[in-house]
């Protein structure tokens, strides 16, 4: 079999990398469409139509990254999967209910009479919100090493709002890119508001993070790596301030540089993700399970890697193609 | 109730709900590709109208399949952690390949299929339809490979209670896989055919006299008429394969309590698990032996040979009869419909109503078939290797009871919404004049030309 020369350590790292890629892509891609859902204004139907239209061709594929992430965790680190999901059973179920609600509302709203359409829009908005809150909460609990005490709950609650703000922010940036006119000015307004909340969230989470694990504190405060790690929240602030400036200038820029806020949001996501990655490596459950404790059988990992090394680049290629095809402002949502 | 029963109920609920939607989309994807190709070849706008109606049904069904499928992938870890701990080395890569080779393909190209026709060249739109159809089929390939392996495991070894993969081609192409895959794909073909025929019949019944529903009805009815005998043949082959590998399942399906020669084919009976016998038997003498061993005096092993190792008889026995009964009904209706459509080019009103009534007959047959095969594997999760109770979670039962209630609630709501939306789409399409603005322009120009000439 190919990849025979790869040791189990290398395989574990490769799969951690793949898992990381899947989670990051999920956070960015489903992040913006969940964010658009959270921002859905209850009282303006034409906004709602345009906003849903902007994510129409993408949401299905975006959500698939979550399936891949959960699948990779399940397969490559089965013990971690069962520890995480059994601890987070209830929030995970609520997240799934949220995903179910928003996923189907999207399709139902387009096919039912006006009165019912509002109800499905309601489901879409609050399903999205339920999803983002529970995802943030789960992230928080995971970071604490699956603790369930009051302090961990508080931290998870903060993470829930932080993640929701992050999704709403990238969602607003997406709308700036995909919309025009009134909706776009509204999107600028949303992006500015979310930017504030997000900055506060990143600061709070970064600080509280230090109180959770001895090893993380050491890494941040007294190792050479600490400078890099410290630089990350600072860089985030730099970027977010820049984004604030850009958001003020863009409305008068006559359509130029509309991709900038989204690009910056992307970088911020990437940076936060890197900080998490460095802080907790080589743990899959912080402080509890390392990748080597939880890794599956090497020959099965090799077997899937053969396919993954061929298929993942293809997936990235055709995903890119679809974004090219639907580039530019969103069209009215009609199937033809 | 304990975590075991609740987890089983929840999993049964989830998988029953989930399977309804892929069962439609697997074959509907191919129908759509066919409609698109016909549209390209003939240039007649009616094919595009049919495509447009059914692609919306596809999108809705696909969305329901996706969201209910995501919940399945979580439950492996939450409710059945023992399964992945023991069999993860086999199940993991198969599930992984499904996500990598099928999910992304379907979900991504569906975007082009639904919203891309104005933005991409026609050939790419047609290709996307093909890719989506292939994607759904690949998905079925992997999931049925894993499922079949759980029925007829091979190509593995057990070391310290954990299963390790030895030979992947043996695992993927395990003995029951070809039969199960064929049986499932044909089931999907029939489910989609009867759905298309049923909803088209409903449109005609509501007074839709356009040609689109007529053509769709014809296409679907002829397809069903061809597929159903193939399905009966495939089902028979599958049964023989099961007899070879899982004789206890066959014994439960046929209600054979004691090994006997020349066993009757029971059309109806009430199996009595306590007394190990059947009541109110109506059967064809020696029928089961004839069908299963191709010998009227052939020996069928009874449940007595599998004490403590055989599935609960009632559910398997009844589900099997529901599936076969539904298949026979489909055969009669599809052939009668084809005869009328071929000879008279239309259906008599009573048959139109029968088709409407049978819109979801594929669901009933598919679900019944799955209960036969899945309940029939009990008490094992992996035949002869792992019992179902070994896999169950240590979650508090109260939590599972809560989530079970939530799932049940949301599924009821979704089912009502799905059914009523399909009905509504049919009703609307009756009122809509399915002529595109281009066609209207052309007709107007032609009329003006005529007027000018006159």
Architecture overview:
The complex is a heterodimer of chains A (336) and B (454). Chain A has 13 helices and two strands; from the N terminus they run αααααααααααββαα. By secondary structure, chain A is an all-alpha fold. In chain A, strands 1-2 form a two-stranded antiparallel sheet. The radius of gyration of chain A is 20 Å and the shape is globular. With 454 residues, chain B is mainly alpha-helical. Chain B has a two-stranded antiparallel ribbon with strand order 1-2. In chain B, helix 1 packs antiparallel against helix 2. The radius of gyration of chain B is 24 Å and the shape is globular. Chain B starts with a helix and ends with a helix. The chains are: A mainly alpha (336), B mainly alpha (454). Chains A and B meet through helix 3, helix 4, helix 5 and helix 13 of A and helix 2, helix 3, strand 2 and helix 13 of B.
- The average pLDDT of chain A is 85
Distance between the termini of chain A: 47 Å
Task: Return residue spans of chain B where pLDDT drops below 50 for at least 5 consecutive residues.
Answer: none
**What is the number of helices of chain B?**
14
The strand line-up of the biggest sheet of chain B is 1-2
Query: What structural class should be given to the helix and strand makeup of chain A?
Result: mainly alpha
Biggest interface: chains and residue counts?
Answer: A-B, 60 and 67 residues
Rounded to the nearest angstrom, the radius of gyration of chain B is 24 Å
Number of strands of chain A: 2
Summed over residues and divided by their number, the pLDDT of chain B gives a mean of: 87
What multimeric state do the chains show?
heterodimer
The end-to-end span of chain B amounts to 84 Å
Anisotropy-based shape of chain A = globular
Beta content of chain B? 5-15%
Query: What is the strand content of chain A?
Result: under 5%
Largest sheet of chain B: 2 strands, antiparallel
């Amino acid at each position: 079999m190919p990849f025979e020369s790869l040791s189990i350590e290398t395989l574990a790292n490769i799969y951690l990398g793949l898992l990381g890629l899947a989670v990051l892509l999920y956070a960015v891609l489903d992040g913006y469409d969940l964010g658009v859902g959270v921002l859905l204004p209850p009282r303006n139907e034409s906004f709602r139509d345009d906003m849903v239209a902007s994510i129409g061709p993408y949401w299905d594929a975006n959500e698939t990254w979550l399936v891949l992430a959960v699948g990779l965790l399940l397969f490559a680190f089965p013990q971690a999967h069962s520890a995480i999901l059994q601890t987070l059973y209830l929030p995970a179920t609520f997240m799934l209910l949220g995903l179910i609600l928003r996923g189907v509302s999207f399709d139902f709203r387009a096919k039912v009479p006006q009165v019912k359409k509002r109800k499905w829009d309601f489901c879409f908005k609050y399903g999205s919100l339920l999803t983002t809150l529970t995802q943030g909460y789960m992230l928080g609990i995971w970071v604490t090493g699956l603790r369930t005490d009051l302090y961990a709950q508080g931290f998870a609650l903060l993470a829930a709002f932080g993640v929701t703000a992050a999704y709403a922010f990238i969602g607003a940036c997406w709308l700036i890119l995909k919309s025009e006119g009134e909706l776009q000015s509204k999107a600028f307004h949303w992006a500015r508001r979310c930017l504030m909340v997000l900055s506060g969230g990143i600061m709070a989470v970064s600080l509280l993070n230090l109180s959770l694990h001895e090893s993380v504190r050491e890494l941040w405060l007294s190792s050479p790596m600490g400078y890099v790690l410290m630089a990350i929240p600072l860089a985030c602030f730099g970027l977010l301030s820049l984004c604030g400036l850009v958001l003020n200038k863009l409305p008068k820029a006559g359509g130029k540089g509309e991709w900038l806020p989204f690009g910056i949001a992307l970088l911020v996501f990437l940076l936060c993700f890197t900080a998490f990655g460095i802080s907790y490596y080589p743990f899959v459950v912080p402080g509890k399970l390392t990748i080597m404790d939880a890794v599956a059988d090497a020959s099965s990992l090799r077997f899937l890697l053969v396919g993954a090394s061929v298929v993942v680049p293809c997936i990235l290629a055709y995903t890119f193609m679809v974004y090219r095809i639907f580039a530019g402002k969103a069209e009215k949502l009609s199937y033809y | 109730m304990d975590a075991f029963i609740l987890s089983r109920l929840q999993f049964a609920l989830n998988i029953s709900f989930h399977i309804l939607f892929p069962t439609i989309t697997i074959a509907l994807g191919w129908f759509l590709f066919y409609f698109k190709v016909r549209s390209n070849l003939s240039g007649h706008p009616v094919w595009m109208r049919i495509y447009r109606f059914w692609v919306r049904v596809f999108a809705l069904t696909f969305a329901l399949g996706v969201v209910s499928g995501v919940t399945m992938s979580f439950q492996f870890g939450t409710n059945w952690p023992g399964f992945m701990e023991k069999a993860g080395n086999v199940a993991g890569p198969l599930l992984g390949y499904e996500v990598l080779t099928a999910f992304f393909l379907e979900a991504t190209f569906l975007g082009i299929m639904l919203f891309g026709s104005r933005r991409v060249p026609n050939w790419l739109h047609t290709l996307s339809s093909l890719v989506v159809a292939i994607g759904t089929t690949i998905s079925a390939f992997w999931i049925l490979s894993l499922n079949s392996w759980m029925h007829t495991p091979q190509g593995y070894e057990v070391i310290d209670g954990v299963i390790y993969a030895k030979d992947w081609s043996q695992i993927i192409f395990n003995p029951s896989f070809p039969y199960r895959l064929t049986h499932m794909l044909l089931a999907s073909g029939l489910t989609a055919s009867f759905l298309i025929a049923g909803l088209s019949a409903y449109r005609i019944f509501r007074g839709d006299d356009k040609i689109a529903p007529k053509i769709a009805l014809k296409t679907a009815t002829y397809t069903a008429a061809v597929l159903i005998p193939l399905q009966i043949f495939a089902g028979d082959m599958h049964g023989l394969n099961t007899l070879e590998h899982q004789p206890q399942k066959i014994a439960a399906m046929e209600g054979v309590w004691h090994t006997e020669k020349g066993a009757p084919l029971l059309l109806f009976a009430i199996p009595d698990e306590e007394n190990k016998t059947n009541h109110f038997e109506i059967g064809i003498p020696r029928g089961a032996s004839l069908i299963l061993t191709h010998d009227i005096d052939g020996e069928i092993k009874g449940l007595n040979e599998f004490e403590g190792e055989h599935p609960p008889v009632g559910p398997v026995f009844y589900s099997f009869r529901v599936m076969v009964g539904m298949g026979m009904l489909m055969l009669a209706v599809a052939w009668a419909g084809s005869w009328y459509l071929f000879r008279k080019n239309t259906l008599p009103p009573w048959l139109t109503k029968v088709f409407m009534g049978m819109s979801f007959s594929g669901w009933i047959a598919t679900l019944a078939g799955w209960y036969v095969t899945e309940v029939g594997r009990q008490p094992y999760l992996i035949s002869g290797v792992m019992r179902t109770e070994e896999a169950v979670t240590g979650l508090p039962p109260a939590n599972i009871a809560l989530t079970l209630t939530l799932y049940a609630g949301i599924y009821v709501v979704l089912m009502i919404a799905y059914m009523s939306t399909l009905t509504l789409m049919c009703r609307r399409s009756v009122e809509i004049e399915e002529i595109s603005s281009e066609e209207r322009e052309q007709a107007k120009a032609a009329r003006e030309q005529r007027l000018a000439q006159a």
